[in-house]
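WARN retry 2 of 3 for item q-0093 after timeout on previous attempt; input resubmitted unchanged.
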Amino acid sequence: MATDEFQTIDGIAEGIYKEKGSKFLAFAHPVTNLDEIKEIVAQYQKEYFDARHRCYAWKLGLDENNFRANDDGEPSGTAGKPIYGQILSNELTNILVVVVRYFGGVKLGTSGLINAYKTATADAIANANIIVKTVDITIEARFAYESMNDVMRVIKEENPKVINQDFNLMCSITMIQRENLSERLIERLSSVSEVNIL
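OK item q-0093 returned
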């Protein structure tokens, strides 16, 4: 994969694992920021208030340090870590996996718990549709009306996704371009006279 590509899932997927009466319900969500993650986790805590544990792990972006694993009262390292381990081994990011545990009355022990959280997560990921996305940069160009033809030629050749345009006395175009191609687009637009890049 290119340095500006990553794998994630394109929708919510569910998985389940049962052992000795305990039920582990796994929910994988595509996410893009921390606020979204907090909201989803709070939702599960509210919806499954009667469950013994609601453990989770998430990873955002391409920075290897932007993740969290939470055991929610399970013995340290037996829940969040195995969930996160599945995220890593499937090479996913921008993902949150919540595993809700209903206790069945029989303790599973450390290795039993690790296996249960790992298997439930693996099942949810196996049921997900994995997609490749690019890291994109938003670029805004402001320019005089006279520079319109030159600017539009660069845009046509570089082919960014135009998300907003305004052609008045001062014109502006907002575009999204994948990271690996954004530098060339900025350089080419900057070389047109009377163009400001924001």
